[in-house]
């Protein structure tokens, strides 16, 4: 078990889950500590983490020297990068305009740079490090043989993983990877992702999937991520884990949602036309529709034979969130 676990993204969905699980474990293990990285440790919303005994340090993924300090003494590091935040920043759109690229290309380049900063600095602390667990996604260009070109929130993460493996084999020998599945909470991300009430009282639940596509691995990151990361810290390095609680086709997911809420609901594919009508800008239409085509044609992990499932690597699968459990615990009143 790690003596000092450093968590990037501790204030977020994935990192917060890792922090809560380890805080519970470490209460029974004196001498073991958690250090969480945030850009602003003093934020009032971070009080709960501090009160739980987690050391919060200020560091920025854009500032390697701050990561160097934050990784001091780390035995284990959990790292996640956040692609989507860049698409809420005016600087991304200004740079896209200036350089003639799409905003999602600029966002991917920024995410890759942050990932490289994490890896460069983790490599500086290799001697004391037992495990780096990187939150990543599969390489859609590679596994689709070039058919999928715009699933950039996947491909940037895959490039970060490639950078780690090719630049620092010694660090890679101490690393494992979690490819987080499809967040069950994605319906909150954009209005068109939520079930849409029809005039007859039934619902259409659009999904980024084609009919009869590959099963989608669903995950509830605030609950489940900690269990994946613990399994990857406890097991030997070199594992790539698909992080999910339950996999099913989009059709089954929607039918279950209807059953839980006692309404008629049907799945429809979120096509480019639907996305455009919903007001998504063209770069986002590309990103979300190609992402759906990739995962439902090739699989979330692209069919990579090396990817393991939670039950194969010692994850406490009984603690993971089933789709129906998630539907029952959510408040759907705003949608219904
Ligand atoms: N939606 C899906 O279905 C899905 C599936 C698989 C993977 N993902 C990936 O999950 C990632 C997001 O993870 P999440 O859900 O845990 O994110 P989140 O809840 O939005 O939290 C983002 C975290 O990143 C930290 N952060 C952002 N920029 C930072 C910086 N410059 N320096 C230091 N820390 C920084 C934030 O910390 P502070 O704000 O406190 O600094 C926060 O803790 C995305 O890249 C997405 O592509 C999503």
TrEMBL record:
Keywords: NADP. GO terms for cellular component: nucleus. InterPro entries: NAD(P)-bd_dom_sf (IPR036291), NmrA-like (IPR008030), NmrA-like_oxidored (IPR051164). Residues 2-301 form the NmrA-like domain. It holds the Pfam family NmrA. It comes from the Eukaryota. Belongs to the NmrA-type oxidoreductase family. This is NmrA-like domain-containing protein. It comes from Oleoguttula mirabilis. The lineage of its organism: Eukaryota, Fungi, Dikarya, Ascomycota, Pezizomycotina.
């Amino acid at each position: 078990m790690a003596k000092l676990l450093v968590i990037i993204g501790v204030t977020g969905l994935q990192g917060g889950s890792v922090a809560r699980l380890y805080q519970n474990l470490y209460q029974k293990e004196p001498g073991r500590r958690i250090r969480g990285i945030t850009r602003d440790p003093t934020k009032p919303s971070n009080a709960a983490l501090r009160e739980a005994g987690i050391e919060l340090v200020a560091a920025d993924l854009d500032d390697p020297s701050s990561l160097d300090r934050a990784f001091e003494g780390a035995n284990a590091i959990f790292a996640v990068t956040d692609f989507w935040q860049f698409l809420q920043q005016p600087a991304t759109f200004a740079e896209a305009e200036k350089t003639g690229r799409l905003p999602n290309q600029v966002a991917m380049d920024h995410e890759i740079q942050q990932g490289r900063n994490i890896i460069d600095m983790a490599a500086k602390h290799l001697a004391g490090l037992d495990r780096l667990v990187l939150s990543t996604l599969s390489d859609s260009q590679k596994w689709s043989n070039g058919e999928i070109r715009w699933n950039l929130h996947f491909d940037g993460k895959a490039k970060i993983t490639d950078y780690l493996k090719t630049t620092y084999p010694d660090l890679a020998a101490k690393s494992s990877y979690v490819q987080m599945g499809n967040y069950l909470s994605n319906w909150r991300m954009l209005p068109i992702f939520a079930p849409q009430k029809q005039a007859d009282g039934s619902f259409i639940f659009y999904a980024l999937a084609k009919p009869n596509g590959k099963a989608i691995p669903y995950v509830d990151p605030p609950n489940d991520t900690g269990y994946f990361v613990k399994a990857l810290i406890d097991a030997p390095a070199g594992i790539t884990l698909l992080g999910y609680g339950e996999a099913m086709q989009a059709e089954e997911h929607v039918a279950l949602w209807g059953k839980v809420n006692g309404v008629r609901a049907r799945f429809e594919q979120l096509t480019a036309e639907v996305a455009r009508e919903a007001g998504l800008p063209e770069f986002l239409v590309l990103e979300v529709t190609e992402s759906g085509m990739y995962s439902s044609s090739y699989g979330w992990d692209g069919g990579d034979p090396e990817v393991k499932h939670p039950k194969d690597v010692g994850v406490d699968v009984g603690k993971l969130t089933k789709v129906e459990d998630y539907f029952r615990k959510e408040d759907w009143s705003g949608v219904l």
